Amino acid sequence: MTVQITVEQLAALVGGQFASTADLQLPITGAAAISDALPGDVTFFGNIKYLSGLKKCRATAALVPLDFAEEIGPVAIRVQNPTLAFSLLVEKFVPPPITFAAGTHPSAVVGRGVELGEGVSIQAHVVIEDGVKIGANTVIGAGSYVGHEAKIGADCQIAPRVTVGSRSILGDRVILHSGVVLGGDGFGFEFSNGRHIKIPQVGIVQLDDDVEIGSNSTVDRARFGRTWIGEGTKIDNLVQIAHNVVIGKHCLVAAQSAVAGSSRLGNYVTMAGQTAVVGHVELGDQVIVAARGAVSKNFLAKEVLWGAPAVPIREAKEQMAMVRRLPKMAERLRRLEQLLEAQSAPAARIAESSPER
Amino acid sequence: MTVQITVEQLAALVGGQFASTADLQLPITGAAAISDALPGDVTFFGNIKYLSGLKKCRATAALVPLDFAEEIGPVAIRVQNPTLAFSLLVEKFVPPPITFAAGTHPSAVVGRGVELGEGVSIQAHVVIEDGVKIGANTVIGAGSYVGHEAKIGADCQIAPRVTVGSRSILGDRVILHSGVVLGGDGFGFEFSNGRHIKIPQVGIVQLDDDVEIGSNSTVDRARFGRTWIGEGTKIDNLVQIAHNVVIGKHCLVAAQSAVAGSSRLGNYVTMAGQTAVVGHVELGDQVIVAARGAVSKNFLAKEVLWGAPAVPIREAKEQMAMVRRLPKMAERLRRLEQLLEAQSAPAARIAESSPER
Amino acid sequence: MTVQITVEQLAALVGGQFASTADLQLPITGAAAISDALPGDVTFFGNIKYLSGLKKCRATAALVPLDFAEEIGPVAIRVQNPTLAFSLLVEKFVPPPITFAAGTHPSAVVGRGVELGEGVSIQAHVVIEDGVKIGANTVIGAGSYVGHEAKIGADCQIAPRVTVGSRSILGDRVILHSGVVLGGDGFGFEFSNGRHIKIPQVGIVQLDDDVEIGSNSTVDRARFGRTWIGEGTKIDNLVQIAHNVVIGKHCLVAAQSAVAGSSRLGNYVTMAGQTAVVGHVELGDQVIVAARGAVSKNFLAKEVLWGAPAVPIREAKEQMAMVRRLPKMAERLRRLEQLLEAQSAPAARIAESSPER
C-alpha cells in the first residue's frame, strides 16, 4: 500500500474490533508477514504456530481472530478471518496490474525473417534483429534489444531496456528485469608480446523455462558452446555469470554474487548475497553458500559453506569464534609465562626474551 | 582540465611568479585539493591549517600566497589570492555546462493522461507511459523509460537510459545517473513442490527530495508498501537496494554496496564501498560501516562498524591485530612447551605428544 | 557449439579413429582447452608439454595424434593434426559472425556538427549529441547514447545500450559491451549544514586504444581532469572505476571489482574478481590483487596481494593457516595450564589430563 492511514481507519476497512482504544491514531504504512513486519506495518495471525512470533513481532497492528486474548505488542484488531481480511486489505491498496497489449509499436524496428507468436507485444523503441523467433504472449519491454537469431519462448516478460544477445536461447515464462545483459563477451584473453589478445567468444547464452534474472545482472556468452542456466533458477540484481558457467535447476543466486568462468553448479544450489564461486569448480546439488562466502574449490552435495575461502560452515564459525577468543588466549599465555618466570631463573630469562607483550 | 600544459604555461595563466626557475617544463594534467593531489596535478594553498598537508603533498605545482616562503614538494607559484586563482584556472579549463532545452523530442513516445510541468525536457527516444506526472524543469534523458503512473518532482535530472518503474514516486531535485533501475521486482519466492514460486511484488519505490543515485544502481519495488530512500541521501554506482528497505535522510552509500530486504537505516548513516547489510536489521542514526563491512544484526546510533560479520571497529581492529600476531604467539607457546620439557620428565612426554610443530 | 552430438558422430566429423569402441554414445556438448575442459567437452592434445594435464583432464573426448598411445581419461580420437582438427570442428559448429553495415539507421537521432568517419555504422534508436566525432568503421550499437562533444576513435565496437558521457575521449579499437556507462558523475559531496552538497564533476573519461569494458560496468567522469584507462587494459562486467582514477596500460580488472577515487594503478596490474582498491592509493606495475583482495595502501611493483585489508600473499596465507590451526593451539595452551597446575600434585593427575588423542 502506498498511502498512510491510521490504525483506526484500517480497522474500519476490515470491519475489525479493538480490545482497547489506545493507539488508534498510529500510522500504518505497510503490510507484512509476522516474521518480516516492522513498526508501521500491519500483519496478520492466521496460524497458532506463529503465536510466539507474533508476541515478539514489532508490527504496529495485527489482524487476529475474534476470540484472541493474548498480550501482544501490536495493536490487536479482531476479525472473523484474519488471513482473508489481510488479503482483502492488501488488494484494496494495491492498484490493478499493468498489462501490455499485443502488437508491435510503430516505433519498434523489426528485422527480416522475424517470427512472432500470437499475442506477442513489442513495445516502443524496441529493436529486434534479423532471424529472431519469439513465442506466444511474450512481452518485449520498451527500448529492449534482441540480437540476431535469438530465440525467446512463450509467456516471457522482458522488461524495458534489456539486451538479449545474438543467438541466445530462452525457454518459456522467462522473466528478465530492466538492464539485464545476456550475451556480452566472456572475459578471455591470451597474453602475447606484452598485450592481451582477445579470444573470440562464439558461444551462446541459454536460459531454460521459468528462469528469472534481476535488474542489471549480466550473463556472458560462452567461449564455445553455451553458458547455461537451468529451469526455474532465480537470479537477483547485479549478479555476474561468466562464460561457460552451468547452473542447475531451481537454484537461487542473491544480489551482487558472481560465478566465474566454466564453473558448474548442481540443482537447488543457494548462493546468498555478495557470494562468489571461482572459475572451473563444481558444486553439488543443494550446496548453500552463506553471505559473502567465496568458494574456491569443488564441494559435494548438501554442503553448507561460509567464509573466504569458503569452508564448511561449522569450521568457519569455529574459526571466527577462536579469533574472537584470541585476546583471552593471549592473556592466558602471558599468565603461563609469568608463572614460569616466577618458578625459576632460566624461565624468567626466556619470558624476558619473548617479544611483544 | 582535459589538456596538458606546462608549469610555466600554467603560471602565465594565473599571472604567478616563481621562487626558482627549476622544473618549469613539468606537465600539468589535472587540478585537485591538497589532500587529493597526485603528480601531474596543480593544487592551491588557501588556509594556513593545510600547511603540513601541503608539505607532504605530491602535486606537481601549488598556487601559494605572494609572501609564501616554505620549502614544499610542489613547484610554488606565487599569486595574490591562491583560492581565487585556482577557481579561475579551473573555470578556464572547464567547458560550459551542457543544458537541455524544454520540450518533447519528436521521437519520444508519450502515453495518455501524462502531465508535464513547465520547462520539462523529454529527450529523444524516451518512453513515458500512461498517467505519468513530471514536475517543472525536470529533464528526462535520451532513451529513458518512465513506467505507468510514476510521479517525478520538479528540477530532477534523469540521465539517458534510466528506468523509472511504474508508480515510483520521486521528490524534487532527484538525480538519477545512466543505467539506474528503479522498481524491478523484489527477490521473493516461496518454495513449493520443488519449485520457487514468485511472490508478487506490488509495492513501489519512493525517493524523497535531493536523492542522487549513481550509474547502474538498482532499487527494487516493495512486496507491499514502499522501498523508501529519505531526503538528501546519496547513493553511488552499482549499489543494490532490495525490496522494502527504508533508508533515512542524508545517508551516503558508496559503490557496490547492498542493503538486503526490509532492513532500515537511520539518518546520516554512511556505508563505505562494497559493504552490506543483511535483511531485516535496523541501524541507528549516524552509524558508519567501514569498507567491506557486512552488517548482520541491529546496531544503535553512532556505532562505527567493520569486518564481516561487522563488529564495533575497535573490536575488529583488535581481532585483526591479534591475527597478525599469531605467528609470534605460536612461537611463545612453543618456547613454553620446550621449557617445560626441559624441566621434567612428565613435561617431556607431553611435549612429545604435542602435534604439529 | 550449441547442438549435442555423440562421441562417434564427432569422430566421424574429423575423420578420427578410436583405440577402443567403448563409450561411443557419450554426449558432447562443448569444446574447451585441456585446462578448462569438463565432462561433456571435447578437447585436443597438440603439445607434449600438456600431457600430464591431459591425463588429469575431465573432458569426455580428446583429439590426439595418430601415434598416441597413453592411457587417458577422455575417449581418445586419433587424427592427423589434433590442433587443426579442433579448429575445423569449432568452425563447423560456430555460426558466421554478425556484422553491421555502414550507414545511419533512419531512426537514429544525430545532432549538429557531428563528424562521422568512413564506414561508420549508427544503429537503430541511437542518439548522437551535438559536436560528436566518430572514427572510421566504428559501430554504435542500437539504443546507445553518445553525449555532447564526445570523441570516439576508429574501429570501435560500441554494443547496444551503452552510454558514452559528454566529452569522453575514446581511442581506436575500443570495445564497450552492453550497459556500460562512461561519464556518470563522480561521488563527491561536501557536508554543510546537515546536508551533502554536490561537488560539480566537470572532468571527463578517457579510454586509450584497445581498451575493452564489460557489460554494465561504470567509469565515472573526473572532478577535474580525467578518469583515464590506459592502452590495452581489459575490464570485466559490473566493475566500478571512480572519478580521477588512473589505470595504466595492459591491466586486467575482473568482474565486480572497484577502484575508488583518485587511485592510480601502474601497467600490467591484475585485479582478480570482487577486488577493491580504496581511494588515493598507488599500485606499481605488475601488482596482482588476488580474488576478494581489498587494497588499502600503496604497494610497489610486482607485489602479489591478498586479504582484506590486502597484504603480501605469503603473509595472508600464513595468517589464514594460523587461524585454521587455532583450535590446536588452544588445546596445547590448555595442556600447559593443566601441566603447571599438576606440577605440585601427584604424577597420576598429569597422566589423566594427557590422553584424549
Helices and strands in order, then pairings?
3 copies of one chain form a homotrimer.
Chain A: E1 5-6, H1 7-13, E2 17-18, E3 27-28, E4 30-31, E5 41-44, H2 51-56, E6 61-65, E7 75-79, H3 82-93, E8 103-104, E9 109-110, E10 115-116, E11 121-122, E12 127-128, E13 133-134, E14 139-140, E15 145-146, E16 151-152, E17 157-158, E18 163-164, E19 169-170, E20 175-176, E21 181-184, E22 189-192, E23 195-198, E24 204-207, E25 212-213, E26 218-220, E27 226-229, E28 234-235, E29 240-241, E30 246-247, E31 252-253, E32 258-259, E33 264-265, E34 270-271, E35 276-277, E36 282-283, E37 288-289, E38 294-295, E39 304-306, E40 311-312, H4 313-324, H5 326-343, H6 345-353
Parallel strand pairs in A: 4-5, 5-6, 6-7, 8-11, 9-12, 10-13, 11-14, 12-15, 13-16, 14-17, 15-18, 16-19, 17-20, 18-21, 19-24, 20-25, 21-26, 24-27, 25-28, 26-29, 27-30, 28-31, 29-32, 30-33, 31-34, 32-35, 33-36, 34-37, 35-38, 37-39
Antiparallel strand pairs in A: 1-3, 2-7, 22-23, 39-40
Helix pairs in contact in A: 5-6
Q: What would your notes on this structure say?
A:
Three copies of one chain form a homotrimer. Chain A is an alpha/beta fold. Chain A has two domains: 5-93, MurE/MurF, N-terminal domain (Udp-n-acetylmuramoylalanyl-d-glutamate--2,6- Diaminopimelate Ligase, Chain: A, domain 1, 3-Layer(aba) Sandwich); 105-312, 3 Solenoid (UDP N-Acetylglucosamine Acyltransferase, domain 1). Chain A contains six helices and 40 strands. In chain A, strands 8-11-14-17-20-25-28-31-34-37-39-40 form a twelve-stranded mixed beta sheet, covered by helices on one side. A ten-stranded parallel beta sheet of chain A has the order 9-12-15-18-21-26-29-32-35-38, with no helix packed on it. A nine-stranded parallel beta sheet of chain A has the order 10-13-16-19-24-27-30-33-36, with no helix packed on it. The termini of chain A are far apart. The model of chain A is unreliable at 346-357 (pLDDT under 50).
